[in-house]
Amino acid sequence: MSIKAVLFDLDNTLIDFMKMKKEACRSAIKAMINAGLKMKKREGYEKLMECYFRVGLDSSIAFTKFLEEQVGKADEKILQAGIKGYQKTKPNYLKPYPYVLETLETLKSLGLKLGIVTDAPREKALQRLNAMNITKYFGMIITLDDTGVGKKDLLPLELAMKKLNLSPEEILFVGDSLRRDIEPAKKIGMKTLLIKRYQDLRKIKSFI
User: Fold this and answer.
1) What is the pTM (predicted TM-score) of this model?
2) Which of 34, 111, 118, 192 has CB atoms 3.0–4.6 Å from 10's, for a disulfide?
3) Domain 17-93, what architecture?
4) Phi and psi (nearest 5°) for 71?
5) pLDDT per position as a tens digit, 71-82
């Protein structure tokens, strides 16, 4: 059965999300130290990243939680300096991987349906897609807000099939994580492509 749709994970599949997060957090820590935070840069960065991994990489309370844990309270001056430093650096890394635009253009020209299925909240996902100027390629964007669970629970993938009105064998799912992307998609019956490096996007053509 031929492929009629290609679904993509977002973070670390189409964009280097972790590089963006790390560099923005480094800038945030530097700004907080300049505003009065008594910590070494490396220690502060490592503790902030640890906090993000605990409360969620898209969490809006990570900075507050970090300051409460490290100094006992979230001093407003230091908190706002950190947020400002983070937001100043973040846009520099909101760029698609090489081959993303080329791949999306090719798939679109072939008449394939394209979609996003991500575990990120809708607001954050749309911010990243819009910043990369690739939202226009996707007829369907399913986020954490649509089902309340990640792809591991299969509901987002089932919702995608329902919206596409296609059988799983007609869908290729492209992602960077075996556990969160590939295994759930295989379990539901979709064809899959694991992205280990951005050049792997070129392998999509072998499925079409």
Assistant:
1) 0.93
2) 118
3) Orthogonal Bundle (1.10)
4) -125, 5
5) 999 999 999 999
